[in-house]
Amino acid sequence: MKRTILLSPGPATTTDTVKQALVVPDICPRERDFSTVLQGICRDLVAIVKGDDAYTAVLFSGSGTAVMDSAISSVVPGNKKVAILVNGAYGERFVDIAQSYGIPYVPVLFDAGTAIDTGRVETVLKNDPAISCIAMVHHETTTGILNPLDEIGQLAEKYRCTFIVDAISSFAGIPIDIRQCRADFLLSTSNKCIQGMAGLAFIICKKSALEQVKNNPKRSYYLDLYNQYLSFEKSGQTRFTPPVQVVYALQQALSEFFSEGGENRYARYTENWRLLRAGLLGLGFSLLLPEDLESHILLTVLEPDDPKFDFDRMHDYLYERGFTIYPGKIRQKSFRLSIMGDLSPEDIRAFLDAVKAFIKAHEISLVPVSY
To answer: How far apart are CA 131 and CA 124, in angstroms?
Structure first.
């Protein structure tokens, strides 16, 4: 099978063994054997973030946005507000979801790529006792910034707020201790740093927090978090038909995660990030964020001023050579490069060689800088 290198922020490059896991005998997802697979997956997902028996994982068919929708629509009580911390497009997506359901929210706004000021967040919480929930994106892939998980978790505990964490692009790529960060609901998906296939998303829930939402308004039928949890607890089955083959691919991806080890995966990602960052600077590109704010997973690269540079032309040149890159999501002309997935330093070096060849072929003027 041809191997392609995805440097886009998900789906990620997968191993051949994960791809092969999609090819399984047909099975009805209501069979006991399949329920056993689902139960094992849920235990493994909780274990990745160092959860214990006080936590459970709830699976949904859908993309990461499905569990963002489920968390906001299911968790916020009918007479309370959610504070949404926004410093990128995915924080804005939380806002869009709250608006679509008519849920009262308080946006705490920062420019894209700007660090969240915990002092400002605390002021908002202190001045509005109607806020009962906080929603935050951990790794904001709009820019690649990593937001202060533990610090916001401490504020959530101090002001008795339920803490909703979008860890969609950090789960299994950056070490997270769900008890330490005090997340009540932690969201992710099967196709990013866990290196599975797209089609499943999940919420790792603190059981005591989950019980508190059961009497909340039922704003969604398909994405009702408590009923999805209750169905699985009673029957070992999802309420609605899951993407069966994707489940088996996730089972294989989880096995490979534990074989590699969470710290080793983070070290591999970090090595690839450092190599990519140094290589881009060495070629003369400029980066949006300072190194200390970066996640070690994604870089936002500013487009050169040279009029001979054209992103679409570079995208197509690299795509023909097996590399996929992604456009930016900020006002400045930029593009994004992610190192999540089954990538090695050799893949990053090959990519940098291809970028260098593109620059040379199109006589683009860049000024290399030291790293």
So the answer is: 9
